[in-house]
Amino acid sequence: SLAGKTALITGSTSGIGLAYAKALAGEGANVVINGFGDKDAIEKERQGLETLSGAKALYSGHDLTKVDQIEAMMKDAADTFGGVDILINNAGMQHVAPVEEFPLDKWDLIIALNLNAAFHTTRLALPWMKDRKWGRIIQTASAHSLVASPYKSAYVTAKHGLAGFTKTVALEVATFGITANCISPGYVWTPLVENQIPDTMKARGMTREQVMNDVLLAGQPTKQFVTAEQVAATALYLCSDAAAQVTGANLSIDGGWTAQ
Ligand code: NAD
Question: Is the pLDDT of residue 116 over 90?
Answer without folding.
Answer: yes
